[in-house]
Amino acid sequence: MPIKVLPPDLAARIAAGEVIERPASVVKELVENALDAGAATVRVEIEDGGKALIRVSDDGEGMDRGDAMLALGRHATSKIRAAADLIGVGTFGFRGEALPAVASVSRFELETSPDGRTGTRLRVAGGKVEAVEDAVTHPGTKYSLGSVLNHVLMHQTVIGLESKKQMEKAGFYPDLVIGCVGGGSSFAGLSFPFLQDKLKGRNAKTRFIAVEPEACPSVTRGEYTYDFGDTAETTPLIKMYTLGHTFVPPGIHAGGLRYHGMAPLISHLCHLGVMEAVAVHQNPVFEAAVQFARTEGIVPAPEPAHAIRVAIDEALKCRESGQAKTILFNLCGHGHFDMAAYDQYLAGKLEDYAYPKEEVEKALAGLPKL
User: In the CATH scheme, what is the code of domain 153-364?
Assistant: First the structure.
C-alpha cells in the first residue's frame, strides 16, 4: 500500500511517537519495518555497538521514489487512512515508520527498489535530504546509518557543556581531557566545548588525548586519507584516519572500539596536532577498570576503561613529578553487560595484541584510488 501523509486532525489523534533513545531502538524499528514489508530475510550489520554504523537490509517489498521521500516526513503512513483504522492496526510498522526520528539524529542513507531493477538512494543529514540518486539494487530496502560525522559530534557536546558547568561550580578547569575513541563521537562530545577555549587562546595548555586499542589503532597507525565509512562501500568517501574499510579486528580483542576509521573532525584535529592519540593494550585497560570499580563502586564498560587507563597513567606521572593537574575523562558506559570480558581478564585468558604492521598494510591496500 502506498505511503500517504495523514491529515492534521487524524495525526493529532495519534499519541504514540517514535523515540530513538539508543542504537537498539534503531535496530528494533527497522527490523519491524522489514518484517511488515514481507521480508523473508533480514540482515543486520553493526559497527562499534551501533555508534559507528547500523545497516538493516531485507528482501521485502521496496518503495518507489515518491514513497521513499514521503517516508521521511512526519505523520506519513501506509496503514492508516481514517480514524477507524487506528483500532485495527495489528502489524509491527510500515515502510518509513520512525525514519524521521532516526534521520534527525544520524547520518542516514536509504536505498530501496520496488522491482529489483532500478531504485532510489536518499542521503539525509540532520533530518534534511542532501542527495537523491538513482540506484540499481536488489528487491527490498536497505537502510544505512552512521554516527561519526559532524552534526552527530555536535549533538554529543551536551556532555562537555555539562562537564564545563560542573567544573566551573567546583572552581576547576581541566589540564587534560581524555576519552576513548572508536568512532570518536563521545570523545568529541566531551572535548569540543573545552577545545573551543583552546582555539580562542584561552587555556592554551590543555591537552586532549584520544585513547584507542592497540588491536584497532586507526589513528596511531592508520593513514589519513579518503575511505569508505562502511565495509560495503555504500557511503560517500570520507577523509579520516583509517585502517582500510576491509579491516576486521581480531576475535581475541574484548575491549570494544572496533571501527576501522575515525570521525573526520577528530581525525583532522589529530592530524593538526591539536589532539593527541595513544593506543593501549587490553590487559592494562581491564586492570584499570577493576581498580576503578573497587575504588568508585562503578563497573565501567571496556570502552571507557581505555580512558581510565590513560587517566591513571597521567595521574601517576603527576605524582612522580610533583605536579598538580586536573584530569577530566569520560565514563561513557557501564559494564553490566560485559561480564564475560571481565571473566576472561580475571581468569588470565585475555591476550594483548598489537595489530601487525603487515596486516595494517594489507588492509590499507584496499583503499579507494583517487
Answer: 3.40.50.1100
The span from the CA of 1 to the CA of 118, in Å, is 19
Strand partners, 177: 208, 328
pLDDT tens-digit series, residues 304-318: 999 999 999 999 999
Query: First vs last Cα of the chain: how many Å apart?
Result: 43
For the stretch 222-266, pLDDT in tens is 999 999 887 667 677 889 999 998 887 766 566 778 888 999 999
Angstrom distance (rounded) from CA 73 to CA 127: 9
**Consecutive H or E run containing 103:** helix 99-104
Residues 6+ apart with CB under 8 A from 13: 83, 86
Q: How many CB atoms lie within 10 A of CB 129?
A: 15
User: Edge-to-edge strands of the sheet including 42-47?
Assistant: 42-47, 53-58, 140-146, 107-113, 119-125, 128-135
Residue 177: closest CA among 198, 161, 194, 165: 194
> Quick one: how far is CA 204 from the chain centroid?
29
C-beta of residue 59 within 8 angstroms of C-beta of residue 137: no
DSSP 262-311: --HHHHHHHHHTSSEEEEE-HHHHHHHHHHHHHHHS--B-HHHHHHHHHH
Reported as a single tens digit per residue, the pLDDT across 269-318 is 999 999 999 999 999 999 999 999 999 999 999 999 999 999 999 999 99
12, β-bridge pairs = none
Q: How far apart are CA 210 and CA 279, in angstroms?
A: 9
The superfamily (CATH) of domain 4-147 is: Histidine kinase-like ATPase, C-terminal domain (3.30.565.10)
What is residue 145's DSSP assignment? Answer: E
Whole-number Å distance between alpha carbons of 13 and 10? 5
* pLDDT tens profile 181-206: 998 999 999 999 999 999 999 888 99
* Phi and psi at residue 317, to the nearest 5°: -60, -40
Dihedrals phi, psi of 7, to nearest 5 degrees: -65, 155
Domain boundaries, the chain: 4-147, 153-364
pLDDT tens by residue, 341-354 = 899 899 999 889 88
Query: Across 8-17, 35-44, 98-107, 155-164, which has the greatest mean pLDDT?
Result: 155-164
